[in-house]
Structures are given as C-alpha cells and as structure tokens.
Amino acid sequence: MDFKSSDTITGPRTEDHLPHTAQAAAKIVIVGGFGVGKTTMVGSVSEIRPLTTEETMTQAGIGVDDNFGSKSKTATTVAMDFGRISITDQLVLYLFGTPGQERFWFLWNGLFEGALGAVVLVDTRRLEVSFDVMGRLEERNVPFVVAVNDFPDAPRYAIEELRHALDLAEEIPIIRCDARRRASSRDVLMTLMRFLHSLAMSRASA
C-alpha cells in the first residue's frame, strides 16, 4: 500500500506511554459475576484510556443470561477489559477484567495465565455467583482478595458475616469499595498487593 505524505499514522497517546521509571509489571485479573462492576472498576482506576469489549445486550440473551439486580444494564463485556495503573514509580499493574456472563467463562483460562493475583468483586444481592468464581481461582492457585461493591440498594452485612457466607479462610482479605471511585478501587488493588507480599514473605520464611 502506498502512503501519501498527507497520511497520518497514529500511535499511543503521550499519556498512555509506559513511565520510564517502570522496572516491574504484574498482571492482575478482576473477576466476578455479571453486573458486579468489573468494567467500572477497570475504567475508574486505569491511568490510560481503558480497552473495553462491551456489546449491546439483545433479545437473544433473554433466558440465557441472569441479569438480576442489573435490569438497567444495556451492555456486557464479551471478551475482556484492559487497563493499567502505576502503584509506584517502579511497579505497574496491568488489569484484565473478565466477562461476567457465564457463557463467556471459557475465556477466563487464557486471562488467568500469568496472573499474579485477582480481585473478586462481589454484589451482596447475588452472593451465590461468587462461589464458582472463587472456585476457578482456587483451581488455578491464583491468590485473591474479595471486594464488596456497595451498590446503593444492596443489603449491607458485617465483614465476618460475609466471610462466613462466602466460606472464606481468615487470611483472605475482604474490603468494601465503590467501583466508581478511583481512590476506592485503588485501595482494593493496594489491599491485594499487600496480601501478595505477605504470602511471598510467608513462603520465604517457610
């Protein structure tokens, strides 16, 4: 193909360039059932323009997709969401949000490859969908923290009640969050990084 002098080749925006101070990077997956806020979290916390693969929901999903508690939701992730955040000048996290619709869960295996850890987003209106999610992480030995996305109309439970309901070990952190807020989503990621650090220190001293 011949390019004319007037043709413009565009690349990443200046603000999307990887910081020159970055020395290490880690892959983090954000998982959960349909409509729990995974796309929202990636978008709120990412320092670059997030990549999303949302498609409009159609009549074909009726009777197939469970959108309880998300009746107003008109789009759904069909592959993944992607974003990036610098935790420090040296450490960068690449964020991969998984599709929530169960019929797209076959994509999760590829997204879990090479993941250092995971955030399990939970909606207290639908706690039951979290069991399969956490089970898949445990099968692949991916350490995770649980983040309870506080929807305005969702019931609130004490952390220990949630730990019992989700059958979580004492060492697995549970944190409340508002996935719409950058600071809150960043706190979740920092909780995960501290948890991963504690696991690494425990293994080193064993």
UniProtKB/TrEMBL annotation:
<dbReference type="InterPro" id="IPR004130">
    <property type="entry name" value="Gpn"/>
</dbReference>
<comment type="similarity">
    <text>Belongs to the GPN-loop GTPase family.</text>
</comment>
<keyword id="KW-0342">GTP-binding</keyword>
<dbReference type="InterPro" id="IPR052705">
    <property type="entry name" value="Gliding_Motility_GTPase"/>
</dbReference>
<dbReference type="InterPro" id="IPR027417">
    <property type="entry name" value="P-loop_NTPase"/>
</dbReference>
<keyword id="KW-0547">Nucleotide-binding</keyword>
<protein>
    <submittedName>
        <fullName>ATP/GTP-binding protein</fullName>
    </submittedName>
</protein>
<dbReference type="Pfam" id="PF03029">
    <property type="entry name" value="ATP_bind_1"/>
</dbReference>
<keyword id="KW-0378">Hydrolase</keyword>
